């Protein structure tokens, strides 16, 4: 996450709303949360964007391989 990057439409952002930290995608007039919920309208006033997600680490193995 990078706090110095200004978010633009389509960016994945890390934000705080109602004392809960979340990740979502910034859209024109809404934020789409990871669970599919949408924050829009007056509810956006409760959102504080903390930063833009710049890298995502994805697990590539399930750990079932041989032990070295």
What can you tell me about this protein's structure?
The protein contains no helices and five strands. By secondary structure, it is mainly beta. The chain has a domain at 12-52: SH3 type barrels, CATH 2.30.30. The relative contact order is 0.28.
Q: Quote the distance from N terminus to C terminus.
A: 33 Å
The H/E string reads EEEEE
Oligomer: single chain
CATH class type of the domain at 12-52: Mainly Beta
**Outline:** elongated
Mean pLDDT: 90
The helix-and-strand class reads mainly beta
User: How is the CATH topology of the domain at 12-52 named?
Assistant: SH3 type barrels
User: Nearest-angstrom radius of gyration?
Assistant: 15 Å
Point out poorly predicted stretches.
none
CATH architecture of the domain at 12-52: Roll
What portion of residues belong to β-strands? Answer: 35-45%
Helix fraction? Answer: under 10%
Strand order in the largest sheet: 4-3-2-1-5
Individual helix count: 0
The major sheet is characterized as: 5 strands, antiparallel
Query: Tally of extended strands?
Result: 5
